[in-house]
Amino acid sequence: MLCAKAWTVQPPRPEIALVHRMQAFLTPELRLAIMRMKQHVKGEPSYARAGIHSRHVYDAALDGVRDPDEFRAWLRKRAPP
Fold first, then answer.
1. Domain boundaries, the chain
2. Residue 35 burial (C-beta neighbours within 10 Å; 0-12, 13-18, 19+)
3. Distances (CA, A) of 63 to 7, 22, 30, 43, 46
4. Euclidean distance between CA atoms 61 and 72, whole angstroms
């Protein structure tokens, strides 16, 4: 009896790459900074309307951002003209 298995290859998911990057840098201090920024984003409805989500917080944290004021500045630098 012949048995054939079909393998599928999923396209790379950006969030998986982010998880791997985060694991290399995650410290207790960075976790705390991320939690502060996520609380800030959650408390600002304008972020949700602008499409700003946790992924942006993690990217900012990996870029060295550590507080809500720095996060706002980080977002302004990335805003389209």
1. 16-78
2. exposed
3. 37, 11, 11, 22, 22
4. 12
